[in-house]
Amino acid sequence: MIRLVSIIFSLLTLLGYSCQEKNSSVSAGDTTSAQPERLALSPYPASSRPDKLFIINDHNFSPAQLLTIETLQGVLAQRKPQIYRLANDGDAQWLEDLKNNYGVEVDYSLQANFEALLSHFKNDIAGYIVCNVNDQTVNTAISLCGITKAVAVTAENIPILEAMGIPLLKDVRNTDDAWFFTHYADSINNRILCYQKEDRFAFLADYAVFGKMITFYSPLTSELTQKIFAFMQPNTPLLGWGSDEFQLIYHSSANSIPVHPADWAKNLSTLTNFSVSLKQQTATPDTQITENVHTVCFVMTDGDNIQWLLNDFTTNSRWYGSPNRSKAKLGWTISPALSELAPTVMKYIYDRADATNAGRDYFIAGPSGLGYIFPDRYKNLVTYASLTSQFMEKADLRIVNIIGNTRSAEYLKPFLDQQNIDAIFFYYFSNYSGGMGKIDWLNGKPVITGRFNLWEGFETPESLAEKLNYFSADIHSEKGYSLIPVHVWSNGVDDVLQCISLLNKNVKVVTPDEFVYLIRKNLYSGN
């Protein structure tokens, strides 16, 4: 999956606000308690539900100041989140949701004043760590901040903290990731970690500090990376991203580490500290058996991408923000981990799904379950499949999309052994439609492969429609069914609609749950 980000900056959401806003009403859907709920084996840290948030407008601060603010945000969240950053439309959307539906009070009085912000919270931090930006020392500082309750500071801002009497704890400008791991490995959280490029220090650091995680970026084949990976417990999620998708998933999977693409994520330390009940929109699936039709299911890719879901997934008109989404039946991948990483975001997405005969949104677990893995490389696959199932149940998901390199039953059966998982949509990493529509059966459940890709370089809406129109209409043959991965970085909702508009009347478009039902009903010999 090629990872792109289109972050739309907006100041309009801040205009017209008073310094402090409070909404005491809490929606009926808010089941949040003071202590966020976690599954028994959850790797995701939690503290307390926020009741008041000081809003920070990113546009008012330098990158170095944002580093300090972000690490402060993480330190405060270890007890209770108190800071929320605004930089784009997605940030504003989630803040409005917290304010309107979860009774969170918001305060804008510190949104543009670095010194006032530090002064307000100076008694909540133990000191400061000096580092550079854009080299390994920034990651070292972020890692150290989490376990020392300090903030990271660059040289130009030291006088501000000195004047406030905030003590220097450590100057790490002559250190690196290896130094930190050698001296502090026993102090870090070994159930979750961050793999983050140094130039993206303004993102994800709040969550790393909050969870007392190591943040580092070293070659995947380096001795340091292998030591850190081996130090982690099985099924430890990695948040961040690398420069080579295949290599990252290949090496992390070998160490039983699922990956959450999150290198541009903000505010996770705040968003993670809520609990809500999650339920997909109720709709009556179309399970009518019609002879002589070709059945098609379009599924949007990349729903495992946490930062995309947080940034412009819901606001961009190409994707979930499309005004035309109600005109088609669509499948969407989404990360089950969002149920604990950002549960209010997940509920917001679910609550706005279409559920009519004309258009319906149905969500399946994004690759490859709890996080992005290659099952053929994953050592602790049985326990991972069980954990995936638990998170899928929490997130009201019953179909899992898996990306891998082999379709062997050895690597897929552990998932279909889970009572909560009804089917696998399997894509080969090298070509999502490399399975050419083949359907396998394990435990009476289907493993369905992609038939064609709606993806730049593979098929256009026009060429795909032409192929689907002339494909088999035998509903009792696997050739009568086409799973279509829709590559979201080159195609959107309107491209799917364009393809649908060109389909013959005997081509039927269904949602993933309908697709699985029809395949089991018409193809499974055990019926």
Average residue-wise pLDDT: 94
Uncertain regions spanning at least 5 consecutive residues:
2-20, 22-29
Question: What is the CA-atom radius of gyration, in angstroms?
Answer: 24 Å
> Number of DSSP helices?
18
User: How many E strands?
Assistant: 20
Overall outline: globular
Amount of beta strand: 15-25%
> What proportion of the residues is helical, as a percent range?
25-40%
Largest sheet: 5 strands, parallel
Classify the secondary structure makeup into a structural class: alpha/beta
Task: Sum this structure up briefly.
It is built from 18 helices and 20 strands.
Detailed description of the structure:
The chain has 527 residues and is α/β, with parallel strands linked by helices. It has 2 domains: 12-271, no CATH class; 296-523, Alpha-Beta Barrel (TIM Barrel), CATH 3.20.20. The protein is 31% helix and 17% strand. The chain has helices spanning 63-77, 89-101, 114-121, 136-148, 158-163, 177-184, 205-210, 223-231, 245-254, 268-271, 306-310, 338-341, 343-351, 381-394, 409-416, 461-469, 493-501, 512-523; strands at residues 20-21, 52-57, 83-86, 105-107, 127-130, 150-153, 168-171, 193-195, 215-216, 238-240, 259-261, 294-300, 329-334, 360-365, 399-404, 423-428, 439-442, 445-449, 481-486, 507-509. Strands 12, 13, 14, 19 and 20 form a 5-stranded parallel beta sheet that branches. A 4-stranded mixed beta sheet has the order 1-4-2-3. α4 packs parallel to α6 (177-184). The model is unreliable at 2-20 and 22-29 (pLDDT under 50).
